[in-house]
Amino acid sequence: MDTIKIGKFLCELRKERNLAQEQLGEELGVSNKTVSRWETGTYLPPVEMLQLLSDKYNVSINEILSGERLADGEPYKAKAEENIKTALNKSVFTLKDQENYFHKKWLKDRRFELILEIIVLTAIAVLGAIFYHPVTIAASILCIVWFGFTYNRMRTYIECHLYGDKKPEDYKTKNE
């Protein structure tokens, strides 16, 4: 399997759809640098991404791994078997890597909001410790609940991007 050839083919397919590397990366849940690495042949897309690329570009996974469009027939089957074996051995981008990417992206996108929450929560906790008043105790409990809510929003965002069951924008309008 020729990674340079595959990369050039992926680049051609992306350009046929008039997509920038950043646009494609966002749709697939990877960075534009990752897309660039695929297209330069630095490394192959992981097995999980091959199906997404295949659907996006309307080509078979076998054609992606061959780096060209293939006609049906016996050579197609032989090439498919060879490509599958090689792809399974060379896949390096894991689901955990994608999860980490979206976690960092969520934190970066909500940096100001999170800093403000930390300041407010710290102030409430300090006031609760100093005054030991029922209102400050209730506020402290509310802070813990708010933290759980924020964490749940982050996990939902990550899972929507990883598994694609909903568009994250659809979720955002309903729950954020």
Task: Summarize the structure in words.
This protein has 176 residues and is an all-alpha fold. It is built from 10 helices and no strands. It has helices spanning 3-16, 21-28, 32-40, 47-57, 61-66, 74-90, 95-109, 111-131, 134-163, 168-175. Helix 1 crosses helix 3, helix 2 (21-28) packs across helix 3 and helix 8 (111-131) packs antiparallel against helix 9. The longest helix is centred in the C-terminal third of the chain and has 30 residues, at 134-163. The protein is elongated and about 80 Å long. 18% of the residues are buried. The model has no long low-confidence stretch (mean pLDDT 80).
Summarize the SSE layout with pairings.
Blueprint: H1 3-16, H2 21-28, H3 32-40, H4 47-57, H5 61-66, H6 74-90, H7 95-109, H8 111-131, H9 134-163, H10 168-175
Helix pairs in contact: 1-3, 2-3, 7-9, 8-9, 9-10
What is the gist of this entry?
The protein has helices at 3-16, 21-28, 32-40, 47-57, 61-66, 74-90, 95-109, 111-131, 134-163, 168-175. With 176 residues, it is mostly helical.
Low-confidence residue ranges: none
How many strands, which pairing sense, and closed or not: the largest β-sheet?
none
Distance between the ends: 45 Å
What shape does the CA trace take? elongated
Per DSSP E runs of 2 or more residues, the count of β-strands stands at 0
Helix-strand pattern: HHHHHHHHHH
Q: How many helix segments?
A: 10
- Helical content (DSSP H or I, runs of 4+): over 70%
Calculate Rg over CA atoms: 23 Å
* Beta-strand residue fraction: under 5%
Structural class: mainly alpha
